[in-house]
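User: Round two. Same drill as before: sequence, then structure, for each protein.

Assistant: Same drill it is. First protein:
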Amino acid sequence: PATVTPYLTVEIADRGGRLTPTLSVDTDGLARALREMFAEVTRKPVDAVLGWDDGLVAIEPSVTGAALRSDTFARAVAASFLGDHSPVTMPVVVIAPEIDSTRLDVYGITEQLGGGHSNYAGGTWERDENIRVSTDLLDHTLVPPGGNFSFNGAIGEITASKGYQEAMVVSGEAVGRDVGGGVCQVSTTVFRAALNAGMPIVEWYPHTYRLPNYERDGWGPGFDASILQAGPNPERWADFRFENYSDSWLLVEARYSDTQVFVDIYGTSDGRSVEIDAWPMGDNAFGFTRIIRDARGGEIANRTFESRFK
C-alpha cells in the first residue's frame, strides 16, 4: 500500500443526489516507480564465448536477458490493489542472446577450414607482450554468415590501458616506437590462416619494408599483413578484413607459445581447395597467386598479392 497510495486518485461523483467516491490509480506514475523498485529484473543478455575442443564448446555460458514490462505490471498491480488483492505475476520480456550456449548446433561450426602460424622469436619483451595481448583479444572471435572479419574490430583500439607496451613500429615509411608495436605479427598470422581457408580477402596491406622475422618457418616474403590505427576515426584505419563466404558462422581461435603465434579458422567447408604459387618479381618485389577451386575443381577465384618493399 505504501508504494501504490501515492498514485491513488479519488473522484467524487454525484449519483442521483448521493456523492460517491471512485478510486483509480495513475498507472503511468506507478510504472515509473516499479521500474526503479525492480531495476534488477532488467538485464542485458550475455553472449556465450565459444571455442574448439574436438568440436564446438562453450568456454563461457550465455545468459538470457530480461526486460520488465512496467506498464503491464502497473496495470496488474492497480487491478489487484483495487480488487481482490490477489498475487500479481511480474510480466517480463525474455531477451535471448545472439550466441546461445544451449544451441551450439545452429552455428554450423563443425570443422577446421584453415590455419596459419608465424615465428616471433628474438624480439624484445615489449613486442612479445603486445603479441600476447592482441592474440588473447583475437581469440574466440565469431564471424556471422556472409559477414566480414575485421582485425581491428576483433582486438579493439590499441591502448596502454589494455596492457600494450611501447615497441618498434613501421608507420607509413617511418620507423619508430609506439604503443602496440608488434601487433602486425598477429594480423599476419590471421592473413595466412584466411589464405589457407579460402576466405575472400576484402582489405589487405603489405608492409612498407621487408621484415625478415615474418619469413621464418617456410613462409616467404609477402605473406604478411600490415594494420594501422591512426587518428580518431576507425573507418580511416588500415585494417585486415576477410569475408565469410559460407552459410555458417566462423570461429577464429588464436594462441601463442614462447616463440610462435597460431590462428585457426573453423566453420563448415563447401569443399573448396586452395593453391598458392609464389615468385620473386624483381628488386625488393615479391608476389604470390592464390587460386581457389570448388569441390569439382572449377576455379572460383584467382588473385595475385604483390608486395613492393622499400
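Second protein:
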Amino acid sequence: MPGIKDVADAINASSSFVISAHVSPEGDAIGSQLGLGLSLMKMGKKVTFLSFDKVPDFLTFLPGSALIRQGDRIDEEHDALIVVDCEPGRTGLKDLDRAPVKQIINIDHHITNPKTADVYWVNPDAAAAGEMVYDLLKHMGAPIDIDVATNLYTCIFTDTGSFRYTNADYDALSKSAELLTYGVDTWMITENVYETKSFNRMKLLGLVLSTLEKSDDGGLAWVTVLEDFYRQTRTSAEDTDGFINYPRSVKDVEVAVLFREAGPDTVKISFRSKGRVDISTFAHSLGGGGHPNAAGVVLKDTTVDSAKALVIPKMVEHIKKTIVA
C-alpha cells in the first residue's frame, strides 16, 4: 500500500505543482497547503496554490496566505496536483480527470478517504494533515523555517481544538513542541484563531444560538444557519467556523449537528461527537465523510427542514445503538 515514501518519491521526481485542499477550508487545510508549498518553493520547485473558496479572514495571518489563488479549475500544465486534508473530489475543482497535470498526489488523514489518487498516503491516526506534512518534510530532508512551522503548528493546534480533543495524543503534542523550536509565536496564532472575533460575527452567533434544539433524550443537540442570517448581520458562511462547538458543549449531549443553508436547495451538515459515538460512518452513509469525532456531508435538492427530518431521527437512533452497545 502506498505511503510516505511513495509520496516523497513522487514529489522529488517532479518540479511543478498545484496544491489544493477542500472546499470551505479551515486551519488544517490552509496550513498544510501552505506549509508544504512554502517548503517546496525553498527547494526550488514551482508551486501554485489554488482554493475553491477564499482563505477565511481569521487565517489570513498565516505566512503565504496571500499566495493562494481562488478558482475552480487548473489552467496551466504542472507535473502534479497535490491534494491535502481531503480526497481529490472534495477540492471543488472541476474536470480533474482532464486537468493538465501528470498525476494526483493525495495526503490525507480522513478514514473515509477512498484512496483513488495516483499516489496517496492516508493516515487516520494523524491528528491533522499538517502533522503528516511535517513528517513528510522531515522524511524528505526538506527545508523548514518559521513560516513553514507556523503553518504546520496551526494545523495541529486547530484540528485538536487547541489541544482539547482526544486526538491531541503524544505524536500531536510532541510534533507541536518540535515546531516551536523554529520560533513559532503561539500567542499570535491563538489570538488570531480564537481571540479575534468581529462584532458582526458575534451578532451572527446570537442568531444561530437562538435556533438551538435538542432531542427528547438529550443525547443530540443541533443549530441552524439560514442564509438570511448573513444578510441580517453582514456576515458570510466562513463566520460560522466553530459554531458547532456550542451545541456540543451542552451537558449530556453526545453528538452535535449544524445545519447550514449553502445555496439553492443545498444544505451543508456538520457533525461533532464528544468521543463515544463514531459519526464518520453515519456521515459516509449519507454520502459524506470525515473522522470518528468530526464529519460532514452536503445534501443537494433539499431544504433545511427536509434535511432535519432525514438526519435527526436517524442520528438519535445511531446514538442510542452506539451507547447501548
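The CA atoms of residues 228 and 261 lie 9 Å apart.

User: Perfect.
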